[in-house]
Design brief:
alpha/beta; Rossmann fold; Arc Repressor Mutant, subunit A; 5-stranded parallel sheet; 8 helices; 14 strands; 23% strand
Amino acid sequence: MTALPSTHDRTLVLIVEDEESYLDALHIGLTAEGFAVLAAPTLAQARETLKSASPDIILLDVMLPDGSGIDFCREVGASSNIPVIMVSARSSEVDVVLGLEIGAADYVTKPYRLRELISRMRAVLRRVNPRVDDEVIAFGDLRLDLGRRTLTRNKEEIVLSRKEFDLLALFANRLGNVVTREECIDALWWGLELSDTRSLDTHVKRLRQKMEAVPDEPSQLLTIRGVGFRLDP
């Protein structure tokens, strides 16, 4: 199943996935959202596709019949700037961290909600291409407007500092997935020694005080011990 883009202004997605049920659902859902879709059920076909097409983003399964998506992600990163989102049933923290460390722009675990996947795709595309339209990310009863740089609950604004907003946006762009402490430091405190992360912990604590009903028992912004943080939908 392959659908070629009909116009050059549609975002082109390459789906590398061998499970037909996921492939069909993604093709229908992404097309309905205005994306153009190319599909490859094997790594060999994905490599052939990249010889003649330049997708804007790749959705890549980890386990494929002719090899590992991890190796293919490395190949893509070494030869292009195309962002890759790993999509896999392997959901352990080790798998997630490995996927991110080898260059994936994001890691989404199966089963997933299509709306969440599309939100993550647009967040990745926005980082790569700032001209992509801004969007509002909703989680719980909160709405984070990335264009206006506002956080609201029931239309009432919660005032955040610049660093608090940037940190929350980092978590929201990876909604439901772990963001490692290293990624937080690299994104917002470059040059800070990883052993001295008091500033990061302080900002996470302040965010919880502003957005959690019981800051000492958070239900949305969670600490994943020894790894980092996760913002739940």
